[in-house]
């Protein structure tokens, strides 16, 4: 876990403690949910997409939506895993406001996905690997916690970070040797 991730986790734990976090979602549950996101990420390999997976969890801890990157499959630059689960979650709940929901994703969200999470009013974002080239949930930007915006999300970084990072590193290493 990177130093920035450690700071984020400590900051988030304090926020959760003071806000009375959802008992249905614990650190152990975040790891289990991240494993679901990793399983989704692996499905992206079937259509040569970057292996990023996401899971949207409702206020009661139930999985509302899960998906993976489909940019190559759909020829759609917005078909990121996070965007797909946020859209599916809104359709499933019948409301664009996903208050009380948690977004679990294998890679730190980009600016588009972080902005969508804020606009959807997601309570928290849990991510695995930091993205020092395009991350917008701490590494380069911190859109979900920007005080200038009308909503902020709690952040939990580094959940199963090694597994998430390895999946991406292996994917790009294979592409370079092919």
Outline the structure in words.
The protein is an alpha/beta fold and 178 residues long. Helices cover 44% and strands 15% of the residues. Strands 2-1-3-4-5 form a five-stranded mixed sheet. Strand 1 and strand 2 form a beta hairpin. The longest helix is centred in the N-terminal third of the chain and has 18 residues. The N terminus is likely disordered.
Attribute tags:
6 helices; alpha/beta; disordered N terminus; five-stranded mixed sheet; single chain; 178 residues; globular
Kindly summarize this structure in a few lines.
This protein has about 180 residues and is of the alpha/beta class. The protein has helices at about 5-20, 25-45, 70-75, 80-95, 110-120, 160-175; strands at about 55, 65-70, 100-105, 125-130, 155.
């Amino acid at each position: 876990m990177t130093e920035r991730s450690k700071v984020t986790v400590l900051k988030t734990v304090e926020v959760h403690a003071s806000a009375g976090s959802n008992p249905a979602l614990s650190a152990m549950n975040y790891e289990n949910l991240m494993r679901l996101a990793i399983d989704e990420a692996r499905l992206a390999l079937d259509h040569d997409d970057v292996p990023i997976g996401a899971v949207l969890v409702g206020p009661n801890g139930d999985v509302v939506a899960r998906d993976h990157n489909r940019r190559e499959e759909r020829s759609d630059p917005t078909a990121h895993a996070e965007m797909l689960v946020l859209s599916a979650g809104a359709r499933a709940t019948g409301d664009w406001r996903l208050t009380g929901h948690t977004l679990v994703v294998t890679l730190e969200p980009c600016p588009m996905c972080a902005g969508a999470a804020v606009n959807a009013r997601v309570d928290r974002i849990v991510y695995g690997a930091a993205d020092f080239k395009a991350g917008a949930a701490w590494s380069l930007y911190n859109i979900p916690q920007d005080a200038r915006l009308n909503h902020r999300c709690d952040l939990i970084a580094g959940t199963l970070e090694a597994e998430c990072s390895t999946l991406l590193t292996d994917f790009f290493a294979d592409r370079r040797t092919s």
